[in-house]
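Can't paste images in this forum, so I'm doing it all in text. The chain is below; anyone willing to post the predicted structure tokens underneath?
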Amino acid sequence: MSLNQQVHTATIRVLYGDTDAGGIVYNGTYLRFFEFGRGELMRSLDLSYKNLEQLGFLLPVIESYVRYKSPAYYDDLLIIKTCLSEVTRKSCRFHCHIYRDETLIAKGFTKHACIIRSGSLTNLPDDYLSGMQALTE
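Text version of the structure:
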């Protein structure tokens, strides 16, 4: 994340079901944490996924990356920092950093394509595009 990007911060508590038998957060759970951060960022802009889907558009993940830096554990309070790093007419990319206190736990990104329900690639609705682009300027 760069200093010129607007960063949204959200917190989430690690549930027992988020962990493996050793009480450590399961690796796939981090993508769900990324999703939580994205959803909260979009909601803060009054551009919710729910409204986008009601308009007939979907934003499926087409690429993802996670770099694990330190384990998270059951009952940890995690801080999720999310920003939009790229927005085009047909796609967007979110970067996410997850912390426990000051410790970086994981970082990565997800890239999304805009499609209609039939699966065809399409442009983001203008209000979503302009609202999202405002975060990357």
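The chain has one domain: 8-136. The helical segments are 29-44, 49-54, 126-136.
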